[in-house]
Amino acid sequence: MAFRAELSAFLQGIEKRAFKQAVYALRNEDAALDAVQDAMLKLSVSYGDRPAQEYPMLFQRILQNVIYDALRRQKVRNTWTTLLSSFVGDGEEDADNDPLDTIAGIPEGDQPDTPHRQYEQARVLEAIEREIARLPNRQREAFLMRYWEEMDIAETAAAMGCSEGSVKTHCSRATQTLAAALRAKGIVL
Question: Which of the four CATH numbers 3.40.190.10, 1.10.3660.10, 3.40.50.2000, 1.10.10.10 does domain 113-189 have?
Answer without folding.
Answer: 1.10.10.10
